[in-house]
Design a protein that fits this description.
Keywords: ATP-binding, Kinase, Nucleotide-binding, Serine/threonine-protein kinase, Transferase. With 334 residues, the protein is α+β, with helices and mostly antiparallel strands. It folds into 3 domains: 84 residues, Phosphorylase Kinase, domain 1; 190 residues, Orthogonal Bundle (Transferase(Phosphotransferase), domain 1); 40 residues. 37% of the residues lie in helices and 18% in strands. The strands form 3 sheets. The protein has a 6-stranded antiparallel sheet with strand order 1-2-3-4-6-5, with helices on one face. The chain has a 3-stranded antiparallel sheet with strand order 7-8-9. Helix 3 packs antiparallel against helix 5. About 6% of the residues have low confidence.
Length: 334
């Protein structure tokens, strides 16, 4: 039994653990089910404790967002903190692991990538950078994907803003190069001995690109490297990410999916796609036209060729292509 702010919760099962935290599935006196995150502060320094307290502040700030897991209650105790939150059914990490034995399903990728990006857009609207996006931090709650775990998130609207960290950084598999690079450099303006990490919205987009890459190929871009070599590979501009033409099960990967991943995984944060650009990309938001439009297009092309009776120059083809593309865009499903 757990007692939080005078309310009793029956522990049903341990949902997960990580470092100094445990998450339990619990039930209150009205038989409602919640998730309780317990973080123990023993053997922690003040910086990490501050991070967990910051998670409470951010969850309260984001409590009106449907795409963020709800915080219902919390209690700070001398050596621990308890958070009473929504209880989900399954996280994205388990979903992706279950797909490993199956061939690439583009509809699956589009659905979960779009759900994930809706979560990220909700957080970025509040000027918050999550800093530790990974499949395990996306939770399915009653059919809707939600974002969880704001332990090292910060209110930093631009990637050029410094965020002081020391030992508590994100998950290397999904961390952007600029985050790892700056985590290994000292900032003279930071407190003595504290490393500085520059993170921002583009860093979260990189993490989402890594997750989409995993959906398509079965593993993140740098998963073939182990331990410290992985971090070095991410930081090294000479290590180029490969984009095979086939994904899980030997299924062909569409060029627009590869272009999308490349746009998310640009090393230069200023050249990386924005969340809105990713969501509106041709892979996640395919163009669709009706049959009558195709009929009209073919009819006009045939008539144009008959009327001209001469070879069309390349420049004119480019002009006609732009005209057709603009017409298709006007009928595009966003």
């Amino acid at each position: 039994m757990l007692l939080i702010n005078g309310k009793s919760y029956l522990r049903l099962e341990l949902l997960g653990r990580g470092g100094s935290s445990k998450v339990y599935k619990v039930q209150n006196n009205n038989s409602k089910v919640f998730a309780v995150k317990k973080v123990t502060f023993s053997d922690m320094d003040e910086t990490i404790i501050k991070g967990f307290k910051g998670e409470i502040d951010l969850l309260q700030r984001l409590n009106t967002e449907d795409r963020v897991v709800k915080l219902y209650d919390h209690e700070m105790k001398p050596t621990s903190v308890f958070l009473v939150m929504e209880c989900g059914e399954i996280d994205l990490a388990h979903v992706l692991n279950a797909r490993l034995g199956h061939p690439l399903d583009l509809s699956f990728v589009r659905y979960y990538a779009t759900e994930m990006l809706h979560c990220l857009a909700a957080v970025h609207r509040h000027g918050i950078v999550h800093s530790d996006l990974k499949p395990a931090n996306f939770l399915m709650v009653k059919g809707m994907l939600k974002i969880i775990d704001f332990g090292i998130a910060n209110v930093v609207p631009e990637y050029t803003v410094n965020v002081h960290r020391d030992t508590h950084i994100g998950t290397p598999n999904y961390m952007a190069p600029e985050a790892l690079l700056d985590a290994n450099q000292f900032d003279p303006s930071a407190p003595e001995g504290v490393k500085c990490m520059k993170v921002g919205k583009p860093s979260d987009v990189w993490s989402c690109g890594c997750i989409i890459y995993q959906m398509i190929y079965g593993k993140p871009p740098y998963a073939s490297y182990n331990g410290p070599q992985r971090m070095l590979a991410i930081m090294n501009p000479d290590v180029v990410i490969s984009y095979p033409e086939t994904g899980l099960g030997g299924i062909e990967v569409p060029p627009n999916a590869i272009n999308l991943m490349k746009g998310c995984l640009q090393r230069d944060p200023s050249k990386r796609l924005l969340v809105e650009q990713v969501m509106n990309s041709s892979f996640l938001s395919p163009r669709s036209v009706e049959k009558y439009f195709l009929k009209e297009l073919i009819e006009n092309a045939v008539r144009y060729g008959v009327d001209r009776q001469t070879m069309v120059e390349d420049l004119e083809i480019d002009f006609l292509t732009d005209d057709v593309w603009n017409k298709m865009s006007s009928k595009m499903r966003i």
